[in-house]
């Protein structure tokens, strides 16, 4: 029968000391500790970039679309809210879903009464938005065009969240305020 040798106390101390001095896995452990916050930061930066990029793109679309009201093209064509909404949708890119775009066009009696604040969509019992208006005005009228979009955001790690609306969405708003050109 083979005899089993048990390690001595001295050899146990030597192995423990060697294990403590060994630094071969230290880099992997350090990376594991730093990787989670680093990835969380990357996700937060990416999400913030997408929201701001979408905001700027929506601003550009509103400036281009509003020009048709400013110059009287919308009024002379007797365009409806649906037609102007389609004009806006035709200019957006793959970033936006047309059904999530809300257009509100109102005439203001003066520059001081022009409301450019965010207009949160309200819904009727069928799920249709019911508080958007469309009044492109006449020549010389002060007009405020607001286009809103519910941008979906995903919850970031470590509690980073850009949503400001229910269902993890962020309401982004682009506004143009101008005085219609006089008729020629």
Q: What features would you describe in this structure?
A:
A three-stranded antiparallel β-sheet has the order 1-2-3, covered by helices on one side. It has four helices and three strands, in the order ααααβββ. It is rod-shaped, with a radius of gyration of 30 Å. The protein is of the alpha+beta class and 184 residues long. The chain has helices spanning 9-21, 26-70, 73-76, 81-91, and strands spanning 101-108, 142-152, 169-179. It has one domain (24-179).
Major pleated sheet: 3 strands, antiparallel
Report how far apart the termini are: 115 Å
Instruction: Please list the strands of the largest sheet in the order they lie side by side.
Output: 1-2-3
Helical residues, percent: 25-40%
Percent strand equals: 15-25%
Give the overall silhouette.
Answer: rod-shaped
SSE run: HHHHEEE
Rg value: 30 Å
- Structural category is alpha+beta
Low-pLDDT segments: none
Mean pLDDT: 83
Overall number of structural domains: 1
Helical segment tally?
4
Number of strands: 3
What is this structure, in a nutshell?
This protein has 184 residues and is of the alpha+beta class.
Characteristics of this structure?
3 strands; 4 helices; single chain; 184 residues; 3-stranded antiparallel sheet; 40% helix; alpha+beta
């Amino acid at each position: 029968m083979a005899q089993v040798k048990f390690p001595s106390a001295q050899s146990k101390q030597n192995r423990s000391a060697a294990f403590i001095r060994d630094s071969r896995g230290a880099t992997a452990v350090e990376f594991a500790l730093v990787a989670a916050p680093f990835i969380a930061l990357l996700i937060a930066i990416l999400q913030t970039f997408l929201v701001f990029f979408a905001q700027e793109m929506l601003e550009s679309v509103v400036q281009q679309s509003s020009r048709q009201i400013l110059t009287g093209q919308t009024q002379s064509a007797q365009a409806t809210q649906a037609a102007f909404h389609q004009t806006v949708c035709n200019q957006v890119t793959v970033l936006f879903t047309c059904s999530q775009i809300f257009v509100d066009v109102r005439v203001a009696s003066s520059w001081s009464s022009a409301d450019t604040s965010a207009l949160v969509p309200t819904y009727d019992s069928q799920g249709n938005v019911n508080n958007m208006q469309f009044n492109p005005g006449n020549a010389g009228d002060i007009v405020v065009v607001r286009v809103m979009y519910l941008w979906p955001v995903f919850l970031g790690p470590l509690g980073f969240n850009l949503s400001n609306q229910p269902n993890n969405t962020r309401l982004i708003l682009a506004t143009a305020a101008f005085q219609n050109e006089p008729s020629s």
